[in-house]
Structures are given as structure tokens and as C-alpha cells.
């Protein structure tokens, strides 16, 4: 005759606890994960880091610059931001660090060279911006919005509280999130991890414009200081109570490397990419065509009755958008039987198709001959610089 056997259900987690099997911190986190997505994030499957050049190895613009205002200056993808009322002098540099955290070789350093005595509600930050199309998976503005975690190594001569602000950009109005972290010991590399709550109140411009950025606040006046807050469309203040003032004394410094932004509530080990891949990612936003140590020839044709030339320049990576062009120095201009050297009055984009691999530039000269019916070439003279800037 048939025999029916029944067996009570088993709670695997409780059974493992009863067995006292060592699972470690990572194992406990996997067991505590509530969804496959959380487990996927914990094991680091797929590409994780939303930050380009988080290890500060790429510096196409140069390794050091004295700065007094807003802009990209040295390390690629990192920008200094200040309100218009700020008066400051800072050296921004890419450092080759002898005491680097394991696995890292370079850092970004900001050094105060002239003290700022009055800030009157102004603020000064180091910023990283991300295209909206690269953060669509955060599902911002919905009830399914994701947690994200920012981790990094940081060092400063000034221990204390530092503010961290996230922004979700939308043409209908931006949302911001303000929190903080603490540097405990001066002149010591410390690892930090900050969890950023889901943004359910405001979506992002999901295109190739700026959709999201993070500010590392380094100085703020009293009118810009509030308590930490969750995502809000009304948050204008940039710093929390006790924010360290980096600009109040000469030789104060802030140094950072190993920056990673990823899905989930757990910081995973830094995602190291090859130098070549990191450079290519940076070149979507900025490219140096000529510099003082680099010369190349580009084909073109005469234009505008002989005083200009249009040249076609291959570019290694498609730019985010049609770029701003900056040029200095002297160019050689060739036709079929002569060569002339001259400095152009202006260099502008003649044509750049979306995601193009070639950009056409218009170089306007005075007093030279670039006949339309002759083959024309340009090359740098040795001190020439030519850059393409499609930064956010």
C-alpha cells in the first residue's frame, strides 16, 4: 500500500546559523540579499563603475595648473566649481603618489595658494558629471529607483566633516541630496563609502547632456550650510554644519583617488580598467589633436577665395557632441608646390556628424594663398596646440 511521507519546510539561513558554518561578511551579505539584482551587484558582475578616470591616471590637459575659477584644468573628467563671488587661488595637479593606497598610482590634488577670508554664503567644490543616458538604469523619478554607493580614498591636512552633494538634472527642475563623510586623521589616506538613497521624486534628462553630478564640497559660507537632507527639489544649500574650510589657509590640501560610483548599498572593490580603455572613455569628452610635442598632417582644400582652408582630421573616439575648438601657435599650410607658415585668425568646426570618426575644421588666415583648385594640407609647426572640447 502507498506510504505518504511529509517533511516540514526548512529555513536554509537558520540551518546555516545552527551549524555555525563560517560564511564571512561577504557570505552574510549574499544570504541577506533580497533580490537577484542585489546579489548581482554584490558579486560585481558586469561593468560597475559609473565614474570615468576615477583612479586619476589620465590628464590630457596637463599635470598642473593654477586656477582661479570654474573649469576643467588637469585630470580628465574632474572640474572645479565655485560661485561667482568666490575669490580663490588653488593649484590643481595630478600627483604620482609614493604613499598611494594599494593598487593606485595617481591622485588629484587641490592645494590652496592664497587664503580666502570671506565667503559670504558661497561654496567651492570638486565635481564629477555624468551623461543622463549613462544613468538611465538608476530609474530615477520612479518608485523602483535604485540605491547607489560612492566609495573613494581621500587625504587632507584638515581632518573633519566634508559635505557630499548629488544632483539629478531635469529641465522641469533639479533634485539634490546632501550628506557628509569624515576625515578622521590628517595627512593619512582613508577609505570612505557613502550610500545615496533612491531618488523617487525627479527623473533625469536621459540624453547626452548632463544628467547627474556629484560635488565634493571643500569650502562654504554660513548662508550655504544646512542639515543633511534626502532628495528634494528645494535644496539649494551645498554643505552641512561643520564643513571644513579648505580655502582659509595657504597650503591646505585635498587629495583623492579610487573614486567609484555603483548600484547597490555595498561598495565593491575598485574596478580597474586598462590605461587604453580609460583614455578612450575620456576622449569622448576631450581630445588633444596637436600639442607642443606632437605633429601630424591633415588633408584639406582651399576655401573662401584663398585665405582659408577646410581640413578633415580623423579622431580616435567619437565625441559626445560637436566640440569647442581651442588653437594656438603656427601652422604650415601646403599646396601642390609651396609651403606657408601662419597663425590662423580662428579655428572653428566646419562639420561634425553625430558619432563621427572625422571632424572638418575651418581655419581662417590672412594674407596667404589656399587656392580652391589645389590640394592643401596643414601640419603643426612644433609649438602648435589644437584641442577639441565636448565636456558636459
Secondary-structure map:
Layout: H1 12-19, H2 24-32, H3 36-42, E1 64-67, E2 71-72, E3 78-82, E4 89-96, E5 106-114, E6 123-131, E7 148-156, E8 160-168, E9 175-183, E10 190-196, E11 210-220, E12 225-226, E13 229-232, E14 239-240, E15 253-263, H4 275-283, E16 286-290, E17 297-303, E18 308-314, E19 324-328, E20 331-334, E21 339-342, E22 346-351, E23 358-364, E24 375-380, E25 385-389
Parallel strand pairs: 12-14
Antiparallel strand pairs: 1-4, 2-3, 3-6, 4-5, 5-15, 6-11, 7-10, 7-15, 8-9, 8-11, 9-13, 16-25, 17-18, 17-24, 18-23, 19-25, 20-21, 20-24, 22-23
Structure, briefly:
The chain has helices at residues 12-19, 24-32, 36-42, 275-283, and strands at residues 64-67, 71-72, 78-82, 89-96, 106-114, 123-131, 148-156, 160-168, 175-183, 190-196, 210-220, 225-226, 229-232, 239-240, 253-263, 286-290, 297-303, 308-314, 324-328, 331-334, 339-342, 346-351, 358-364, 375-380, 385-389.
Question: How is the main sheet built?
Answer: 7 strands, antiparallel
Give the H and E element order: HHHEEEEEEEEEEEEEEEHEEEEEEEEEE
Mean pLDDT across the residues is 88
| Class by SSE composition | mainly beta
Q: Which value, in Å, is the CA radius of gyration?
A: 26 Å
| Strand fraction | 35-45%
Helix percent band: under 10%
- Number of E-type strands: 25
Unreliable sequence segments: none
In DSSP terms (H or I, runs of 4 or more residues), the helix count works out at 4
Measured between the Cα atoms of the first and last residue, the distance is: 77 Å
Form type = globular
Under CATH, the topology of the largest domain is which?
Jelly Rolls
CATH class of the largest domain: Mainly Beta
Question: Order of strands in the sheet with the most strands?
Answer: 2-3-6-11-8-9-13
Instruction: Write down the domain tally.
Output: 3
User: In the CATH hierarchy, what is the superfamily of the largest domain?
Assistant: Galactose-binding domain-like
